[in-house]
Amino acid sequence: MARVVLVTGAARHLGGRMARILAQHEGVDRVIAVDVVPPRHELGEAEFVRADIRNPVIAKIIDASEVDTVVHMGVIATPMQAGGRATMKDINVIGTMQLLAACQKSESVQRLVVKSTASVYGAGSRDPAMFTEDTAPKHPPTSGWAKDSMEVEGYVRGFARRREEVSVSILRFANIIGPQIDTAMTSYFSLPVIPTVLGFDARMQFVHEDDSLEALRMVTMVAPDRGISGVFNVAGPGIVMLSQAVRRLGRPSVAVPRSLLGIAGRSLGRAGLADFSSEQVRFLTYGRVIDTTRIADAIGFTARWPTPAAFDDLIAGHRLQPLLPLHAKIRVDQEVV
What we know:
This protein is α/β, with parallel strands linked by helices and 337 residues long. It has helices spanning 13-23, 57-65, 79-82, 85-105, 144-162, 184-189, 209-221, 242-249, 258-270, 278-286, 293-299, 307-317; strands at residues 4-8, 30-35, 47-50, 69-72, 111-117, 167-173, 175-177, 194-197, 203-204, 206-208, 230-234, 240-241, 253-256, 329-331. The protein starts with a strand and ends in a 6-residue tail after the last strand.
């Protein structure tokens, strides 16, 4: 069992909750929660250390504390969180490289768990009905968090080859939603009018924030003699179509040509209303579904929240009240815009 665990990204919602959960686990003696800014939430019995993983000082923290397990949750999903795209990429990619360099030099690190995203599969017209962990993306991401995550995974695989004795697990999550977490998707569904892509109805799959943390906990705490390595998809069973999600919200939608949705997205970002990249526009166009058989077979994890139930909990938790007594749909044609 893991004894001394270091959790990155502890100032954000999921990282802070992960640190609290692990600190309460009977198999853990100590949890060190790391981030560049102090958390706004309680970390329970976890110890907060203000540190930047882009700085070599992270190696000193790992060595001094004899960390044996690292849970990397420090990859930022939106530029709004980081203060700009350049800073976001620097934290995500350079920060991961520095963290892995520290882990490689450490004699105590035995396990590395990395929170990644199913966005690395991309989204496009030639995609399979369901992605397995071994499916090569036909439309790989070219920008934003998804591209950063592809680079992060590449560096993690390189680390795994150099340190074969270390158990390395990458968890690719479907879009994480829930009553408390704020993401690009929760911002999108919180808009008073939901922009959709004209002529498309994406298949969407989500994972509840509680299930995402449980998957991370189970992989982190698996017994040493069952140490698992590799890539694992994590998602709630079932799907919702984008049109069904909008109907569940009870909010009006406006169908926009795909070429214009990116422009609308950038305008919403500048207004601080939502923050989504071109990769999210592709997701809203084509959708994405992932197979979760591998993690179920490896550690017996099955999400408690099906995708439709997780979406309903998002609506309840964020108090997204219907704005119309009946669902309304507006069509915007090319010649009208």
